Amino acid sequence: MEEKEFYTAKNDRVFKEIFMKEENKDILIKLLENIQIEVIQMY
Questions:
Q1: Integer Cα distance of 27 and 23 in angstroms
Q2: The pTM is what?
Q3: Residue 1 domain-assigned (yes or no)
């Protein structure tokens, strides 16, 4: 079985700059809500 590299955003500078700041918490929450909705709709 071939292993595929899994992308994580923990090293992504743009992700850190936008989502890891306290003043941008509402943006991160909205993003996570949208991801949750997409996952629920898949099932």
A1: 9
A2: 0.54
A3: no
